[in-house]
Write a structure and sequence with these properties.
Structural class: alpha/beta
CATH architecture of the largest domain: Alpha-Beta Barrel
Number of strands: 32
Strand order of the largest sheet: 11-10-12-13-22-21-20-17-18
Largest sheet: 9 strands, mixed
CATH superfamily of the largest domain: Glycosidases
Shape: globular
Strand content: 15-25%
Distance between the termini: 28 Å
CATH class of the largest domain: Alpha Beta
């Protein structure tokens, strides 16, 4: 997989004329050179349903007079730039307008993306309709016509459908459209029928060609879906409302456990796809691409070509400002295996194990994002894992808020604990799948869900920034009886807020008489008797984060202890062939402007103390500057100081 990629969107209405009229080979090449682009994804077919070359199976855009795709591929390859090709799989508005019977339908008969033809936008097509045959003919024609370096199939995911074809298939199987599980099972079969058809087409014409099916999100726990791709693209435009700055690092922390190459797909846009004339600050793009390489990903920046085919100079100057730095860092990227003390058992992965995407709640994993924030802000080394991961690779497993234990999961956890592993659980985690009983020794016996909201928790220890007190929690609290060591108390308000009983503006104060344990420790680990990760995602309360940090530090020693502000991020990778460890440090603080999270300023941080559980190296130097920095071994720990960090810094520990 090449680094420094661009995805060149080109969804172009039939109502715009002069398509490609200003395309110029030299101008196209100059833009790619200015952007330091290594690969560019080019369009064979867009969401509007038009081809960008003369096609025998589907119409070329009515206002395009030449083979634009051939011209772009030729120009890119002439300067050594790779050319994957894009085909819109799930959307084809030209067909949608001609064949309404081929559309995906919701249970109420409405359509996906937009719910009718009175609303501007696209309408998704069902792969159980004759459309799939047309799509595969488009794929075959493109593969036979062009020397492409990969195939990007867009808008492809497990999609429940109630169209006529799907209803008939359910009827043939003796199943009902009112059986949600049956509808989900058909959606699964339909998706894999589509991916199998694409793979067969590729294998017959260009075996080994990279294929990626984009559904907008890599579902944690769905390794069967991941397996349909030769590589992974994490579509994650942080300024787009459906992603935010949590989504990529969370997805990358999972992707790096899957054994496939992966890339980060961000955008040059101020907001998201389809925005013309919107540009993010160069510092934001530098931060996002640095975050990609710090997480082991290749970089991709999304752009959208003007209908006239002329590359936007401002865009490629912006992209080049980020990729110039990334290019300098590339000698220290690739072939790495990330060091992780903690494995976070993804709540999304556990929820998706029923093989039905549509049955999952909370698609982007607010619980998982709450764990991400707490661990990242404490500069912990972690991976996000599913139930197929090797648990023994981690000192500690975090079971966040809703991880009830199936027989299979309990067996794996028991083996992990027997080998010395520790558990940090919260909320309902650690309870049996179908019974309110703890199956692990976390020092607690379960009594029930608290009748009060909010509840108050008080740790037995002072926190780094706060003395011990009763801290409010707005998410579910659970009543437990300690059977091991009690590390904190839970108390209730005087009463729940009702029309007859209320106090002050928000909720009643704490009745400071403890009613149960808030934190317990047993032989297997520590339990927090409230949904702490949902709480932190929703409220960002300092006390809850620091309680989790204190409990983790009680259970394990950190491999890397790096003193950074809360928005600082670290990763540590081992590059065995180079006999080196690579420590990435990043700092950037998104701020909300209107509805958009933006990064503009990248303030420098100086004198960052680093302590690592490592033996004495040959040398430590900064990359890409290659400046040597002093180090020492103290109390068995490798100690050194990063003199200055502005956005991103690599420290190479060479053996």
């Amino acid at each position: 997989m090449r680094n420094r990629q661009v995805h060149l969107d080109f969804h172009t209405s039939e109502h715009i004329t002069g398509i490609g009229a200003k395309f110029d080979k030299q101008q196209f090449q100059n833009a790619l050179k200015a952007g330091r682009v290594g690969s560019i994804t080019l369009f064979a077919k867009c969401h509007h349903g038009f081809m960008y070359y003369p096609s025998a199976v589907s119409p070329m855009h009515p206002h395009l007079s030449f083979d634009l795709l051939s011209a772009q591929i030729e120009a890119a390859k002439e300067i050594g730039v790779g050319t994957p090709v894009y085909i819109s799989a799930g959307l084809d508005e030209r067909i949608a307008n001609k064949e309404e019977g081929w559309l995906v339908r919701n249970k109420d008969g409405s359509t996906l993306w937009v719910n009718s033809f009175t609303v501007p936008g696209y309408h998704q097509l069902c792969f159980n309709s004759p459309y799939l045959d047309l799509l595969i003919s488009q794929v075959k024609e493109m593969l036979n016509t062009f020397d492409c370096d990969g195939l990007f199939m867009d808008i492809a995911s497990v999609t429940p459908c109630y169209c006529a074809a799907c209803r008939e298939l359910l009827k043939e199987e003796g199943k009902s459209i009112f059986d949600d599980e049956a509808v989900c099972e058909l959606a699964e079969k339909t998706y894999f029928k589509y991916t199998d058809a694409v793979k067969a087409a590729v294998d017959a014409i260009k075996p080994g060609l990279p294929i990626f099916h984009n559904g907008g999100h890599i579902i944690r726990g769905r390794r069967d879906i991941v397996a349909t791709n030769t590589n992974i693209e994490i579509e994650s435009l942080p300024t787009g409302a459906q992603w935010t700055y949590d989504h990529f690092p969370l997805s990358a922390a999972y992707a790096r456990t899957l054994g496939k190459k992966y890339l980060s797909q961000t955008g040059r846009f101020h907001t998201t796809w389809g925005e013309f004339g919107g540009y993010k600050h160069p510092n934001a793009l530098k931060y996002e691409t640095s975050l990609a390489i710090a997480n082991g990903a290749c970089c991709l920046v999304g752009d959208q070509l003007h209908p006239n085919g002329e590359m936007d100079v401002a865009t490629y100057k912006l992209i080049g400002s980020a990729y110039e730095y990334i290019e300098k860092c590339e000698p220290w990227c690739g072939g790495e295996k990330f060091v992780a003390d903690i494995g976070v058992l993804s709540s999304e992965a556990v929820n998706s194990s029923n093989k039905c995407e549509c049955a999952k709640s909370d698609r982007y994993g607010r619980i998982d994002a709450g764990v991400l924030r707490i661990l990242t802000e404490g500069q912990y080394l972690f991976n996000v894992i599913d139930m197929q991961e090797d648990f023994s690779a981690y000192k500690l497993l975090v079971l966040p808020d809703i991880i009830r234990l199936s027989d299979e999961l309990l067996k794996k956890l028991k083996a992990y604990i027997a080998a010395g592993g520790k558990i940090l659980a919260s909320g309902e985690s650690g309870l049996a799948e179908n019974e309110d009983t703890f199956l692990l020794d976390l020092g607690a016996e379960y009594i029930g869900l608290s009748e009060y909201s909010p509840v108050y928790v008080k740790p037995d220890c002072d926190l780094p920034s706060l003395q011990s007190s009763y801290f409010v929690t707005y998410t579910n609290g659970y009543t437990v009886q300690p059977s091991g060591e009690k590390l904190g108390d839970m108390a209730n308000p005087y009463f729940n807020r009702t029309a007859e009983h209320f106090c002050s503006h928000l909720h009643s104060p704490v009745d400071p008489t403890p009613v149960s344990a808030a934190i317990t420790q047993g032989a297997d680990g520590i339990y927090l008797a409230w949904s702490v990760f949902q709480e932190y995602y929703a409220m960002g309360t300092l006390a809850h984060k620091q309680i989790v940090h204190q409990m983790i530090n009680r259970l394990i020693d950190k491999t890397a202890d790096v003193k950074m502000p809360a928005q600082g991020k670290i990763t540590l990778a081992h590059r065995s062939e180079e006999n080196q460890y690579v420590l990435h440090l990043l700092y950037g603080a998104p701020v909300k402007r209107g509805a958009v999270e933006v990064i503009e300023d990248l303030p420098a941080i100086c004198e960052i103390s680093c302590r690592l559980q490592m033996k004495e190296p040959k040398k430590i130097y900064l990359a890409p500057s290659k400046e040597n920095i002093p180090f020492k071994i103290s109390e068995g720990m490798l100690e050194f100081c990063i003199p200055r960090l502005e956005c991103h810094q690599i420290a190479v520990i060479q053996y």
